[in-house]
């Protein structure tokens, strides 16, 4: 039995008092001192882990004013607070031992768009892609481009002075900041913008902290201007934070925005920003050049910059190889064809853009002519991607590089701690040569990608941070790289801020470091705002953080038993890249996060919780692997009665951290989008089911688990009397019972379509070894074995019937595999022993049928993919044959010579694809288009997120509201938008059910559209 874990680490007294006072002052946002929220916010995309005292989610600017006013009171000078946006920092910028203040949940509104003057006003929690989606209809965008743009907040970008692709053309974030509203200590709102001399005198004579900071900044510029000019390198990336070199802008005006941008929340809370936006170039072309050597790619990039492209991005062979194994490769493979003679070990992505198509074409042609004539380095090929859509597909691969580097095999994985160095571009190749020599001297592998036009290359040395000896190399490598950046006239932190690496600031700033301390003291005299980062206040005894004194994730992870670690690798290898925080409502990644905006309900959050839970269980002496095996040995019925008899434990029997983990896991839809889309392949449904199995060794299961888990076993019997079953399910007493005791809001009804009549018309045969053995070779080639699933067989029988009729009409003989439970409901709920037994039986039956070379084909994607995914992760002796999705089989038979149906359809069809299918087998979704073309029909796959049903998730009472929110995020507006433009289709049973339930619309399956076309 798992251990009871009571409040592992409680809040300190001063923080409890502060939070009580915060409520009393009228703070309206959420305050979450629970261990789950603290655990999830203890990590970002860095190697570090710092447990905060609590997480705060301000509801509005007034909440932040209350917070900063209260924290400035003398009795609370011990309290420290740190702002957090998307949590994508690679250097621990938003990690703290105090209070995390997350501005992304509520302060995420675009307040104003001024198209004529090309500026916007936004709150700090707005995501960059969210902003650009709103600007796109106006032909505008906010630059520069980040690899984390789908989850990075504007506040986070400002606080790190973020830059990225195209920065040589577009500059850094601060180059586009026009005005800022920042809340300073004491609850004072600072409105910063470039100030002329009259305005500067006015602000400098203002009372309190507002006047104090203006006087401090002005005096620094007067007293240290010459030293500042001598000290800092003239780089595209220049400084990030406390930018002394740009106190006065190019017009001579004092601009505090250049001090605040990159300050990492150590001076104040950025709450609102007015930003400059730019016209989207009308035409773009991306040239993808391949090299046999990564160093050739670097050296060539330096020469190519003379041709003045918009940007040059470089990727090495490690990143490219990882991309080839990722979901993204399906969209970009055509641009990186394999070279038969030499492998590609580096690529450059060179973009040109403009508003004149002819001029752009001439520029590109000149560039291609240069590639043909220049022999400075060896290039092994190039391709062109033209237009926004094609280019964005290639860049999506480059953007995933940060996460992909965390998906190498084994425990030694690339780590971000020296990965945003910047040197003058002309020094880059030599700098990287020495950088690589340093890593090679320690026998370290590494991955590289970056912005060579800006002299920035992201280098991630591979270490097993659980190994103390390897972890100690962080200090050695960091010191060595810091020296190299000095040698080549560069910076250790060219793009991703300082964070924990701030210990190198005194050496870099030299005589000017005390000046930074003056700035810090003017804004934050008691060192309460994100302390330890960038600078400490002058005349204080506080110290900067040190890279080997802040706890790392590895220090906690090494406490987990190695057997357990390896068994749960899909959870524990989460590197915090935050791809699951994807803003886009039409992206399937993590619907529960999108609907709740609670980080515990994200793959990153759930992975963090399971890591910590496993660590604590192990430290409590619990062997979770042994308990799991014991649980598998019990059937669901036996375990039910055993628990009722001897081990019944109510959840109310005391607080337990396991309950917080359970709540996070229960909120998962088990859609598996994370397993397909996460660059590191964090598979929440897999470890969720394992956790549920373990949790219920201590705590009693709800009745609904047994009802749902046994569904496939009982439904064939109920289907014999569908009228009786439906009458019972629809009866008010049963509805009341299911809602109040079974945890179900409603339940799907059995279909009244006569399946027997369908089969009679189709002249089917039951698939048995004896029947199949009697077929000739030619008969087998024209046959198919249909694998039934409970949902389309019993609840959506019309779809199964139409599928059978379609197969008959295209001339194939149908053999129906006897219905056998698939086991997905058991797996989802954590009945893993029963699931394995079910999978063993089902695999054996399907294996017997597969011996005759006749394709096995399923219908519902969620059920069919279980055979190739969940089954494959069970015992080695369970070998399930391939069960094709309908479109996979249809595309295959047309490839081998089946007649193509040429009569053209007048209607246009739009597919709303099932999220599990499109994220786990992305190529199969586009196969629907191939099949429709063969039938003379046009099909478009439209972008949608999750429908919110996901099996029985949406039928459960506790999930009903979230299910509706998920539906309203993507499917409801998509149906409203597209239903007038064509015939909407959905290939998921859950999706069709959800649309009927909330949208009062009946969507057909694609096979029904194909059948209707044949019959027309």
What does this molecule look like?
- Helix content is about 45%, strand content about 10%.
- It is α/β, with parallel strands linked by helices and about 1000 residues long.
- Strands 12, 13, 14, 15, 16, 17, 18 and 19 form an 8-stranded antiparallel β-sheet that branches. A 5-stranded antiparallel β-sheet has the order 5-6-10-8-9. The protein has a 5-stranded parallel β-sheet with strand order 20-22-21-23-24.
- The protein is globular and about 95 Å long.
- The N and C termini lie far apart (about 60 Å).
- The relative contact order is 0.08.
Q: In total, how many beta strands?
A: 27
Radius of gyration equals: 30 Å
Which segments are poorly predicted (pLDDT under 50) over 5 or more consecutive residues? 644-648
In the residues, how many domains can be counted? Answer: 6
Profile the largest sheet. 8 strands, antiparallel
Distance between the termini: 62 Å
How much strand content do the residues show?
5-15%
Write the layout of secondary structure elements.
Blueprint: H1 13-24, E1 30-32, H2 35-40, E2 54-57, H3 61-71, E3 81-84, E4 99-102, E5 110-114, E6 119-123, H4 128-135, E7 140-141, H5 154-160, H6 167-170, E8 177-184, E9 188-192, H7 197-204, H8 208-231, H9 257-260, E10 269-276, E11 278-279, E12 283-291, H10 294-304, E13 311-316, H11 317-324, H12 329-332, E14 346-354, H13 357-373, E15 379-386, H14 388-399, H15 401-404, E16 413-414, E17 421-422, H16 428-441, E18 446-451, E19 456-463, H17 468-471, H18 473-487, H19 505-509, H20 513-523, H21 553-557, H22 562-567, H23 569-572, H24 591-596, H25 603-619, H26 624-632, H27 636-647, H28 657-666, H29 673-677, H30 684-695, H31 703-709, H32 711-718, H33 722-730, H34 732-740, H35 755-762, E20 765-766, H36 769-773, H37 777-781, E21 783-786, H38 790-795, H39 797-809, E22 813-816, H40 824-829, H41 832-850, E23 856-857, H42 861-868, E24 883-884, H43 886-895, E25 908-912, H44 915-920, H45 922-934, E26 938-941, H46 960-969, H47 971-978, E27 983-986, H48 989-999, H49 1006-1015
Parallel strand pairs: 2-4, 3-4, 20-22, 21-22, 21-23, 23-24, 25-26, 25-27
Antiparallel strand pairs: 1-2, 5-6, 6-10, 7-11, 8-9, 8-10, 12-14, 12-15, 13-14, 13-18, 16-19, 17-19, 18-19
Helix pairs in contact: 8-20, 16-18, 25-28, 25-30, 28-30, 35-39, 39-49, 43-45
